[in-house]
Design brief:
This protein has 394 residues and is mostly helical. It is built from 13 helices and 8 strands. A hairpin with a 5-residue loop joins strand 2 and strand 3. Helix 12 packs antiparallel against helix 13.
Length: 394
């Protein structure tokens, strides 16, 4: 199968592949225009095109629909490059709303207006899968936009599209909510209530407040991650759940998420008590124990479903007449308590596993401002007397 190159301007090349003759004796050619900085780079693109045509994978750009491209994108990129949970969520959005609305459109014909109309439809009453009135939240619509934009941007990178139409659309802005958390008094009441619950759940609450781990990190802890001598916990994996995989572990999403966290001595003592309790439960289970080394397991040693604590926690709060708070709010509680104690923001950021201090500042800016005001108020008595005295002398 012969191929040739035609330069069509600076860094623009037209790839032409001869595919024989049709029934009428007319030569059949497949063409594709690509961007390449050199002839050698263009020749590599030509070789890829020839291979696609020979394998029957090539589709004329003018005939390629958004659904066609998504199918290839999932197969050639997403299935191997995206995290399992991200891939699952992308597939959900694509199959439930995005492809039914846009899949039939020719890829090169998608315009900003198509996307704007789609986002507008997502705000209409009756679109929600849970049956609730009203449209999707701005945050959810923004997530749809990010999925679409990511796919279209890859189409640009793969030289299927000249530009990303999603980059010209302003999606709804998701309002940033202040991170919900408990203050010191509420936290004390929480810990007191937790002491009256089964030991496993008490430990989950206490450890979460003490460390501020992400839920998946907490549920992914194994006993080998706990160093009783040094009083530390190592975060090296997260626990997740997908319908087709069950409960599984994966590495944290960033290198900064892998970290060593110091734990208060009283919490380490509670962990020792819990370790003894779990060993006793393991002996009771006998051969039924599944052999998991996780801190938090079911009665037979299998890893706990990550959602279990999230579903149990609101019921626990209600039983003890405590203010509503999602389980993730304990991570925020841990952070705001550290800020109130004057702990350095860099240390807090490292402890939380944030990629940068700016992430910490962005999420907890309100708490940092409050702490700064409190610090200023504490210094006020040093100046107020002198200021009044000088005014009197004047």
């Amino acid at each position: 199968m012969a191929g040739s190159l035609e330069q069509r301007g600076k860094n623009r090349w037209r790839l032409v592949v001869s595919c024989g003759m049709d029934a009428n004796g007319k030569q059949v050619k497949k063409t594709k225009t690509v961007t390449a900085t050199s002839r050698r780079e263009a020749e590599k693109e030509l070789a890829k095109l020839v291979a696609e045509i020979e394998k029957g994978l090539f589709v004329e750009p003018s005939r390629l629909t958004f659904a066609d491209f998504v199918e290839r994108w999932l197969r050639d990129y997403a299935e191997t490059s995206l995290a399992p949970k991200t891939l699952f969520r992308y597939k959900q959005l694509l199959s439930s709303r995005i492809l039914p609305a846009m899949g039939h459109l020719k890829l090169e014909q998608i315009k900003p207006l198509h996307l704007m109309e789609f986002y507008s439809n997502l705000q209409e009453d009756g679109i929600r899968a849970d049956g609730k009135t009203g449209g999707l939240s701005e945050k959810t619509i923004l997530y749809h936009h990010r999925v679409i934009s990511s796919i279209l941007q890859d189409a640009v990178e793969w030289q299927v599209l000249p530009a990303n139409p999603a980059s010209r659309v302003k999606p709804p802005k998701a309002p940033r909510k202040q991170a919900a958390s408990y203050d010191e008094e509420q936290t004390a009441a929480l810990l007191e209530a937790a002491a009256r619950e089964p030991l496993k759940y008490r430990v989950m609450i206490v450890l979460e407040v003490a460390t501020g781990l992400r839920r998946g990190e907490l549920m992914g802890l194994e006993w080998k991650d706990v160093n009783f001598e040094r009083g530390t916990i190592e975060v090296r994996q997260t626990s997740q759940y997908l319908p087709d995989q069950g409960v599984f572990t994966k590495e944290p999403k960033t290198e900064t998420s892998k970290r060593m966290i110091a734990v208060p001595s009283s919490v380490m003592a509670l962990l020792k008590e819990y370790r003894t309790h779990q060993l006793e439960e393991r002996l009771k289970a006998g051969d039924l124990w599944k052999g998991s080394d996780r801190l938090f397991t079911t009665w037979d040693g299998q890893p706990m479903h990550p959602d279990t604590i999230s579903k149990w926690f609101p019921k626990f709060l209600k039983r003890h007449w405590l203010p509503p708070l999602p389980f993730h709010g304990l991570r925020h509680t841990s952070t705001t308590l550290l800020i109130a104690q004057g702990v350095n923001v860099k240390n807090i950021s490292t402890r939380l596993g944030h990629a940068s201090i700016s992430t910490t500042m962005d999420i907890y800016g309100h708490a940092l401002k409050s702490a700064d005001r409190e610090a200023a108020d504490k210094l006020d008595h040093l100046f107020s007397g002198n200021v009044k005295q000088k005014k009197g002398q004047g």
